[in-house]
Design brief:
Helices cover 60% and strands 2% of the residues. Helix 2 packs across helix 4 and helix 3 packs across helix 4. It has 207 residues and is mainly α. The longest helix is centred in the C-terminal third of the chain and has 61 residues. The N terminus is likely disordered. It has 2 domains: 128 residues, no CATH class; 50 residues. It has a two-stranded antiparallel sheet with strand order 1-2. Keywords: Coiled coil.
């Protein structure tokens, strides 16, 4: 077990007995066919599809709290199984059936896992882990956009004020026209009344 743990944590490992595909696996996931020795593979060396396989391994199959950007021998082996679409239960990952036997012997409660899709887990965790870069508010483009918005707001305010002033003047003109019409009508009535009075009176000569 100690030897296996060394292979798990070390960046490089010695050739394993009866395992001739270590170099081939490293070449495959590192995208370097001329690689001379097997080693860990950085995530940025992998193709986009292999990066997805790596996320499935270290976020679902072998969950780790620390952030990992490097695939060791165990990760690469599991990724190879994912690529080949082979049954991984026979290998009893991550610890195997012997851990189940220990749990049963000591009556250790084991939580029941709920099945979820890769999209539910990997996609959600990736979106939560990816840092978002906010645009600085003092960039030249942002300043121009803010100035344009301010000018548009000022223009809208001035247009509204001018429209209200125009409506007020139009209403005042209508009011004055109505008052002038009433006054003209009243004057005409007064003139007619005076004319009628003068017409009905008989002129008399003074003695």
């Amino acid at each position: 077990m100690a030897k296996g743990w060394d292979y798990y944590v070390k960046l490089e490992w010695s050739p394993l007995p009866n395992h001739s595909s270590a170099l081939a696996i490293s070449r495959k996931f590192a995208s370097k066919p001329n690689l001379t020795h097997h080693r860990c593979v950085e995530k940025n060396e992998m193709s986009p599809l292999h990066q997805l396989h790596f996320d499935v391994v270290h976020k679902i199959i072998l969950q780790r709290k620390q952030r990992r950007m490097q695939a060791n021998f165990l990760d690469l082996t599991i990724m190879q199984l994912l690529v080949l679409n082979q049954d991984k239960n026979r290998h009893a990952l991550p610890y195997g059936f012997w851990m189940a036997s220990i749990f049963e012997a000591f009556d250790v409660p084991v939580h029941v896992w709920c099945s979820q899709t890769v999209k539910d887990l990997v996609g959600h965790m990736n979106h939560m882990a990816l840092p978002t870069s906010m645009r600085r508010p003092n960039t030249p483009l942002q300043c121009l956009q803010n100035q344009l918005v301010e000018r548009e707001n000022e223009l809208a305010t001035m247009t509204t004020a001018h429209q209200m002033e125009k409506e007020n003047w139009e209403a005042r003109v209508v009011t004055l026209q109505n008052e002038l019409t009433r006054e003209r009508t009243a004057n005409i009535s007064t003139m007619r009344h005076l004319t009628q009075l003068l017409a009905t009176q008989t002129p008399t000569l003074a003695p």
